[in-house]
Design a protein that fits this description.
4 domains; mainly alpha; two-stranded antiparallel sheet; three-stranded antiparallel beta sheet; 508 residues
Length: 508
């Protein structure tokens, strides 16, 4: 035993002690359930060897070895200087300015790009269908082994270079608005960036100055809706650079976009004017804000009144009315119902009891309003039990009584579930999907141009008193909820009272 290592002695001791649990005192041990083989002496040996190992670890030699290892770990965090520390803030600002200046010198200028294009025009080896082609040998001049698979149109290579330069320009431009050098932009910082970017985008040349603030709000909200779903009021520059929306924004530098490309681009002038035109059309009292009744006219005018109530309960409003910024969040959610950020938006609205998930009460709460709308339009009534079973069968939640955001994302039918509960038209389309598939002529084609208005007329009709939205934290405030959740509340809604009176058998 004396030749056994500390690890072996400790393992033997632990195994022997573990096997003695069921033997008790009958094993002839020491009264603690240990067998005779594990004596007090052996336990003392283990304790002594353990103490020696700890002592050896704390010797100066071991400590020095550990310290030498830690010295090789690079410093990965530096705290930002306090704003009151003028000297450190000045040094930090100077360092950031020099870093941006160094990056700017490394970037190709427009004249450099012209030189590159001229060189490419003279270095091609063949021509196919009016496209000048270069191969690997032409490009790097290092040998003849490249072969034809490395050939590419010079227009594509130039387009790649142009895109890379644009991305570098954008990265440097965004860094100029990162005042603290943390790689994060506040909403107001990004708004200033977009405002100064407008004159550099040929596709926005015809935009009136009076519409600039509304365009900036329209552009910024898309980035923040998808990159800041928790409404922190800030986004990472890295996220901006890597998101697909940046491609749409950079596309506006191309002065040859087709009408279809502009219509599909959220940042284009025609699309921004159309969205704002819809907002003006909904604003019946022309006060620059939308009331609940005015928002009911959105789209085909078939949104559930209960759903609109929840929008105003959960989203940031001003004296009970919605500004343009809140309207943009609403539009982005409605037009992108399959996206995780939009589903997060809707789950927060459908979760009427703030439980963190959608339960059967929430389903009943919203579907009861759809039933009333069906009855008002003379449509056949549909039973709640059938819809409830259909929804839960579609989602197949982990908990059979709760639908979480993760459940909606996993099932791939989240947008369908949302449409069933908030929109009469969405419910009707789903309920009649089989007939519509057999006879598509029953469905009236949606004309996307119905809401479009003359661009120049809209640009000149921007009201000076319009409410774009505060430049605050951008977080959607929780204004209020229906009822207090108490079972004896006198303010409980009729639909909630009706739900509570239903038997358990009706719900399960």
């Amino acid at each position: 035993m004396a030749t056994m290592s500390w690890e072996q002695r400790l393992q033997q001791f632990v195994e022997a002690k573990g096997t003695s649990t069921s033997d008790g005192d009958d094993a002839g041990g020491d009264g603690a359930g240990l067998p005779a083989a594990v004596s007090a002496a052996s336990e003392a040996d283990v304790e002594q060897m353990t103490a020696q190992c700890i002592a050896d670890w704390h010797t100066p030699t071991a400590a020095a070895a550990a310290a030498s290892i830690y010295q090789h770990i690079p410093r990965f965090y530096r705290k930002c200087p306090d704003e009151n520390d003028a000297v450190r803030m000045r040094v930090r600002e100077e360092a950031r300015a020099r870093h941006v200046q160094r990056l700017s010198k490394e970037m190709l200028t427009n004249s450099d790009l012209d030189v590159v294009w001229a060189l490419l025009q003279t270095q091609y080896s063949s021509q196919e269908n009016e496209e000048k082609m270069i191969n690997f040998d032409d490009f790097v001049r290092v040998g003849q082994e490249a072969g034809e698979k490395f050939r590419l149109p010079i227009s594509r290579l130039y387009a790649y270079i142009m895109r890379k330069v644009w991305l570098q320009q954008t990265r440097i431009g965004l860094s100029l608005y990162d005042s603290h050098g943390t790689g994060v932009l506040l909403e107001v910082d990004f708004e200033n960036y977009i405002l100064e970017l407008i004159p550099t985008l040929p596709q926005l040349n015809g935009l009136e100055d009076s519409f600039y603030s509304f365009f900036v709000c329209t552009a910024v909200r898309k980035f923040f809706f998808f990159l800041d779903p928790l409404r922190t009021g800030k986004v990472k520059v890295q996220d901006i650079m890597s998101c697909k929306f940046l491609d749409e924004l950079l596309q506006l530098r191309d002065d040859k976009l087709t009408a279809d490309q502009q219509r599909c681009n959220w940042f284009s002038a025609p699309h921004a004017l159309r969205v704002y035109g819809q907002y003006l059309a909904l604003d019946l009292d022309h006060n620059g804000m939308l009331s609940k009744q005015e928002l009911m006219g959105y789209g085909t005018g078939t949104l559930s009144p209960v759903f609109v109530d929840r929008v105003f309960d959960e989203c940031l409003t001003y004296e009970g009315e919605m500004d343009y910024k809140g309207y943009l969040d609403f539009v982005l959610a409605m037009e992108n119902r399959k996206e995780p950020q939009a589903l997060h938006f809707f789950v927060r609205l459908l979760d009427v009891q703030n439980l963190g998930y959608i339960d059967m009460f929430s389903v009943y709460y919203f579907f009861k309003d759809i039933q009333r709308m069906l009855e008002a339009h003379g449509q056949p009534m549909v039973q709640f039990e059938d819809v409830k079973d259909e929804i839960f069968d579609m989602v197949k939640p982990v908990d059979s009584l709760k639908i979480t955001l993760e459940d909606l994302l996993r099932c791939g039918q989240g947008d369908t579930v949302i449409s069933l509960l908030i929109d009469l038209k969405g419910f009707w389309l789903y309920e009649n999907r089989e007939q519509l598939a057999a006879d598509p002529s029953q469905l009236d084609a949606e004309d996307e141009d119905d809401d479009e208005v003359d661009d120049m007329e809209l640009a000149s009709s921007v009201p000076s008193g319009g409410h774009v939205g505060n430049q605050g934290d951008g977080a959607g405030g929780h204004v209020g909820n229906h009822g207090d959740g108490g079972g004896d509340s006198q303010d409980v809604l009729p639909v909630e009272r009706e739900f509570r009176e239903m038997s358990v058998q009706d719900l399960e």
